[in-house]
Amino acid sequence: MEQTKLTNTQATKKKVLHITYDMRIGGTEMVIKNIIEGNNDGCVEMSIFCIEEPIGPWGKDLQGEGYSIHSKARVDGFDRSLITAIRKHVRAHKIDIIHCHQYTPWVYGTLAVLGLSTKVIFTEHGRFYPDVSSWKRRFVNPILSMMTDRITAISEATKEALVEYEFLKRSNIDVVYNGIRALELDLAEIESLRKQYNITDDDVVFGTVARLDPIKNHKMMLNAFAGLLAQHKNAKLFIVGDGELMEELKKQIQILGIADSVVLPGYIPYPKAYLAMFDVFLLSSLSEGTSMTILEAMSLGKPCVVTDAGGNKEIVLHEQTGLVTENDNSSEFQNAMLRLVSNRDLLADYGSNAKTVFTDKFDVEHMSKQYNAIYSGDSR
User: Where are the beta strands (DSSP E) in 197-268?
Assistant: First the structure.
């Protein structure tokens, strides 16, 4: 049988397998998608293995673009069959590196390649609130770390959490900030939304995009906005997203008497136009890693008001690209919004600075270069 001669590039191509829960629409999944789509290194080939099913809409999108995605739904408890499935996949596809995203994929991935020449990279994308640990992790994690070639975290705050709660050595952890492609403005779409919601040039539009989950602390945001509205009737608030708190937030809005100034559009798959319509982006979370929606807002030149949670203050530079308030402090959050609604020049300056900081630090190219350097084995 005639054999095709491999080129040098094909012969030396490094295969990277991303191991994750799934590829639904979310922050971790966006990072993986951006790493894959932002890869311009012809010597690196990427694929995905999901440990839960279904693989999700972004998984389908990537499959449509020609990327290989495999999955095996793990069963309850410790699923030894999943370890076997990952190991078979790694061997069959001659995977050089597994990049495990979040803790559980790290555990299964590391055990699956034990004894193989495959390298292991673990990235922690965020933490639960409140953060907790266990005696098991105090024992297991240092051992897993010894079998792992590189560990990265998406913020300094996340890195410190790995040290405190996962018992990993600080010196073994690198910080690689999330990166995205800058969103592009569609002026016609923005104008259409403004007309739909009767937004005038005198209005100041605050907004957020996040699932309606207690950890996002929308209740505090609404209380702060109600206080602001008492002084500035021309303020509007958009809370884009859906989740378990929808009905509860609707009731709170009625009780506060602010229904005429608050819009809950629900889940919007691609909310770029809403972000572009906002004058100020808000994030009131109790816990965060590196918020992708903050990065999207900054890419559009939006000033931000955020809580001092997780990596927020590493992205939003206080009194430069926005304002950072004490976590879960309604009064501080209200005053920060008031400061911006009262000073259009300051609002414009922060927005311009946000765009510059995004371009210099959080564009997808910066993240891709860092991970490609890790894949190539560059020293720290």
Answer: 204-209, 235-240, 262-266
Pairing of strands 14-20, 97-101: parallel
Q: Look up the domain containing 41 and give its range.
A: 10-180+363-375
**Unique residue bearing structure tokens 């012809």:** 42
Specify the length of the chain in residues: 380
Angle at 214 between CA 282 and CA 75, to 5 degrees: 120
Q: Are residues 207 and 304 in the same domain?
A: yes
CA quadruple 140, 103, 208, 362: dihedral, nearest 10: 100
Q: What is the pLDDT of residue 3?
A: 35
Alpha helices in 310-360, H assignment, sequence order: 312-315, 330-341, 344-357
* Residue written as token pair 């690196």: 44
> Per the domain annotation, does 17 fall within a domain?
yes
Residue 224 lies in a domain: yes
- The residues of the chain scoring below 70 in pLDDT are 1-11, 379-380
Question: Structure tokens of 61?
Answer: 């999108």
Q: Is 284 exposed, middle or buried (0-12, 13-18, 19+ CB in 10 A)?
A: buried
Are 285 and 216 in contact, with CB atoms under 8 Å apart? Answer: yes
Distance CA 99, CA 97 (A): 6
- CATH number of the domain bearing residue 192: 3.40.50.2000
Q: Each residue of 122-180: pLDDT tens digit?
A: 999 988 778 888 899 999 999 999 999 999 999 999 999 999 999 999 999 999 999 99
pTM: 0.90
Output phi, psi for 77, to 5 deg: 80, -165
Q: Are residues 176 and 200 in the same domain?
A: no
Q: Is residue 152 part of a domain?
A: yes
If one counts the domains in the chain, the total is: 2
